[in-house]
Design goal:
This protein is α+β, with helices and mostly antiparallel strands and about 270 residues long. Helices cover about 25% and strands about 25% of the residues. It has two domains: about 10-60, Structural Genomics Hypothetical 15.5 Kd Protein In mrcA-pckA Intergenic Region, Chain A (Roll), CATH 3.10.290; about 70-225, Pseudouridine synthase (2-Layer Sandwich). The protein is built from eight helices and 17 strands. Strands 7, 8, 9, 10, 13, 14, 15, 16 and 17 form a nine-stranded mixed sheet that branches. A hairpin with a 2-residue loop joins strand 11 (about 160) and strand 12.
Length: about 270
């Protein structure tokens, strides 16, 4: 009986899509009689339909999971961890059928945009501070903002044994400002404000790189568009690999130690 399901893929392409081998190697397996579809012999040109079982030497092949990139509007109180012991962890809240993990973090008392993915290769490239990827926040504090506050926040604040990078800061109202960071120090904005005797009463991340929170409601998520992912991939095309970036960091640390006049000290991110 002819399979009327139009959603099909060429057999050699299906085999290569699982990551087991290339299309050319898949063709050799087919020619050698090592491949079956629904336990029946195959030949070049056969197609795989939804629900078909493809085996190589009797071993069932599983389609490679779809690579997912998700933008999530995290509510206050949700913890950016995959630890199942944390009742309010981000994975349980989203309850996605695929296994995801967050890219970076957003503090429990903060809200706003965070990415989640099942693509481990992209995580360090996005997070690597040296790649200067922007993150934008809207912050409300407990007292009136002054020109001095904006100036000091913009030019660097002593935090965790280092001085924060210069950044864009703009006052939006009496108690609210926008800040764009390229760093990811632990509780960085809160610590910067505390240093100047301000307390953060509300912190919301509204943008990561080229992706804006937009009209995404609190607690909702959406998949990143192909256009957004293309721009992100362009941005991280020259991003350092973890090992290479770590070596560079160690070299810079060594340089700072040899220069007693330098007032800058790097702290390894965790």
């Amino acid at each position: 009986m002819v399979n009327k399901n139009k959603n099909s893929i060429n057999l050699n392409k299906f085999i290569s899509s699982t990551g087991i081998c290339s299309r050319r190697e898949a063709e050799k397996l087919i020619i050698n009689g090592q491949v079956t579809i629904n336990k029946k012999p195959t030949q070049l040109g056969n197609r795989v339909f939804d629900g078909d079982e493809v085996r190589i030497d009797g071993r069932l092949l599983q389609p490679k999971p779809k690579t997912l990139y998700i933008a999530f509007n995290k509510p206050i109180g949700i913890v950016c961890t995959t630890d199942s012991k944390e009742r309010n962890n981000i994975i349980n809240f989203i309850n996605h059928p695929e296994r995801l993990f967050p890219i970076g973090r957003l503090d429990k008392p903060s809200e706003g945009l965070i990415f989640l993915t099942n693509d481990g290769d992209i995580v360090n490239k996005i997070l690597r501070a040296g790649n200067n990827h922007q993150k934008e926040y809207i912050v409300t504090v407990d007292k009136q903002i002054t020109d001095s506050f904006i100036n000091k926040m913009s030019n660097g604040i002593p935090v965790l044994g280092t001085t924060t990078k210069k950044c864009f800061v703009e006052q939006l109202s009496k108690n609210t400002f926008k800040i764009v960071l390229t760093q990811g120090l632990n509780r960085q904005i809160r610590r910067m404000c505390e240093y100047l005797s301000y307390n953060v009463t509300k912190l919301k991340r509204t943008r990561i790189m080229n992706v804006n929170l937009g009209k995404l409601k609190i607690g909702d998520w959406r998949e990143l568009t192909s256009e957004e992912m293309q721009q992100i991939n362009n941005m991280i095309a020259t991003s350092s690999k973890t090992e290479e970036a770590s070596k560079d960091s160690r070299k810079k640390k060594s340089t700072f130690k040899r220069s007693p006049k330098s007032k800058y000290h790097r702290k390894k991110r965790t």
